[in-house]
Amino acid sequence: MVRWNIEPRDLDVSWRTGGSRLAATPDELLALLGESTTAEYSESQLDLAEQQLERTEEATLKEALQNLREWVVLTVEYYRFKKSTFDPATAEYTKTQKSLSTLREQAAGVKSDIEMLGERVESLKLAYEKSVRVKNDQQTQVETIEKRLTIALNFLAALRVSFLLFQSASLGSHGSILHGLTTCALRWWDRLG
After folding, report:
1. 21-72, pLDDT tens digit by residue?
2. Exposed (0-12), middle (13-18) or buried (19+): which is 45, by Cβ within 10 Å?
3. How far apart, in whole angstroms, are the C-alpha atoms of residue 130 and residue 172?
4. HEC letters along the chain
5. Those residues with Cβ within 8 angstroms of residue 90's Cβ, 6 or more apart along the chain or in another chain
6. pLDDT band for position 96 (cuts 50, 70, 90)
7. pTM of this prediction?
């Protein structure tokens, strides 16, 4: 169990050789026990440790060996729990974190698109307001031009009538007809201005 990087078939699980060698160097044993917290044990290693534990009777062991046996029992339980509960939860957490990260990136993209669309809407709003002002100005100009054109057409009609009157008038009454035409023309001219 302590030699986690060795295949189970290569482990020396007898006390006479493997155990006594480890017990002879307590510092090395503590270092190996500390390394086992980060080790990854296979099912076959955990099964082998449980088989060896079943063959030993706790009552016949010395206190130090009982403590070591209890450590192994707890380590096997820990790794079984870790593989059955903790590792799947960690995998689910990692998956959720990745999904959350992806969603945050998508949300940032959507927010950027919304800001861009807001700017575009504001731009279109300003362009619309400008075009409405231009349209209103042009409508005012068209109305002014239409009024002037109507006045000009009326003036031309009056001139035509006056011309016809002038042609039909006798030669003796030239002065009063010219005076009437001049007065009429000046009135129409004042309307145009």
Report:
1. 666 777 877 777 777 666 777 777 777 777 776 766 665 666 666 677 777 7
2. buried
3. 63
4. CCCCCCCHHHCCCCHHHHHHHHHHCHHHHHHHHHHCCCCCCCHHHHHHHHHHHHHCCHHHCCHHHHHHHHHHHHHHHHHHHHHHHHHHHHHHHHHHHHHHHHHHHHHHHHHHHHHHHHHHHHHHHHHHHHHHHHHHHHHHHHHHHHHHHHHHHHHHHHHHHHHHHHHHCCHHHHHHHHHHHHHHHHHHHHHHC
5. none
6. very high
7. 0.41
Q: Which tokens in the block code for residue 63?
A: 């206190």
Alpha carbons 153 and 172: distance in angstroms, whole number: 30
Which pLDDT score, from 0 to 100, does residue 5 have? 53
Percentage of residues of the chain with pLDDT beyond 90? 31
